[in-house]
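Sharing a chain and its predicted structure for anyone who wants a worked example. Both blocks are below, sequence first, tokens second.
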Amino acid sequence: MDLTTLTRLLSDVTIVDIAGRVALGAESAALRSLVSELLDNGHKKIVFNLGDVNYIDSSGLGYLISAYTTVRNRGGEIEAES
């Protein structure tokens, strides 16, 4: 299954519903672009909903850690829930 994302707002929190695979390649590149776009548009509180993720490889895990660092360095907050 490919990666799909749905972004929604709840008060001042941006929730990113993620489904499918978080892996090396297009999947992690798509998440990288999405997080960058959210930050550029002023969304500083981000929650990754990983409830429908069925696979994360080591590169995908590395990207999630990278996203955490990027968001925190830009003054935001990020959490992951399943």
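Comments welcome. The longest strand covers residues 45-56.
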